[in-house]
Write a structure and sequence with these properties.
Shape: globular
Structural class: mainly alpha
Largest sheet: 2 strands, parallel
Radius of gyration: 19 Å
Strand content: 5-15%
Order of helices and strands: HHHHHEHHHEEEHHH
Number of helices: 11
Number of strands: 4
Number of domains: 2
Length: about 210
């Protein structure tokens, strides 16, 4: 979605870079010497926190909505139509695990240990668009209906989307997987607890009849 919308943005819009596509990146850092150095040097990024006031405004991928609002200000924030897509968390955790294991070649424990042990990060995306218990988005769509929802949204907002969606971080495993097969009762409960905000918001359930995407 970022790759599809990036080329449509104006000259003053902020577009953060992606590892696989930096062609549309712009205005995501201050045009200062430090800003340029931070954008181009891993060493500088290791030495300076991205929220440091010395750096000025720094926008990055997967940036929490709270931080975006802080940088752009209430007036601009309130003028935007803010939306995101969410995914059934039991399915998302399986997808994330396989992305780490096969897409990035990570040495990972069993799925059960990955979910239950606190040494591994889960894709808790509610932290990106919630302020405590408050959803900051105007709309949250189910990923399962991505194509229809995104096309309809673009039509409502007057965005000239041509229906062609670039692919990013997909086709990690050779075969489609059924997420239900990865879980036992303990791992199901752990995901239910960790992802309680999005489950409550979207009405997600561990569907015994679901077909994994």
């Amino acid at each position: 979605m970022e790759m599809a919308l990036g080329p449509l943005c104006g000259v003053d819009d902020v577009v953060t870079p992606m590892d696989s596509d930096k062609s549309c990146a712009k205005n995501y850092h201050e045009p200062s010497l430090l800003g340029r150095a931070y954008a181009n040097s891993r060493l500088v990024r290791k030495c300076l926190d991205r929220h440091s006031p010395l750096l000025g405004k720094w926008y990055y991928e997967h940036m929490p909505a709270l931080r975006v609002r802080e940088l752009i200000g209430e007036e601009i924030w309130n003028s935007y139509h803010k939306f995101c897509f969410e995914r059934n968390p039991w399915e998302k955790v399986v997808s994330y695990y396989n992305w780490k294991k096969f897409g990035q070649g990570r040495e990972l424990p069993s799925f059960r240990d990955y979910v239950l042990k606190k040494t591994h990060r889960l894709p808790l995306d509610a932290r990106l668009y919630f302020d405590g218990e408050t959803n900051m988005m105007d709309e949250v769509f189910d990923f399962k209906n991505f194509n229809d929802s995104f096309t309809s949204l673009c039509q409502r907002l007057g965005v000239p989307y041509d229906g062609k969606m670039p692919r990013e971080k997909t086709n990690i495993t050779a075969d489609k997987v059924d997420y239900r097969e990865y879980y036992d009762e303990e791992t199901k409960e752990k995901v239910a607890n960790e992802f309680r905000r999005e489950i409550k918001l979207m009405g997600y359930v561990f569907d015994p009849d679901a077909v994994s995407a």
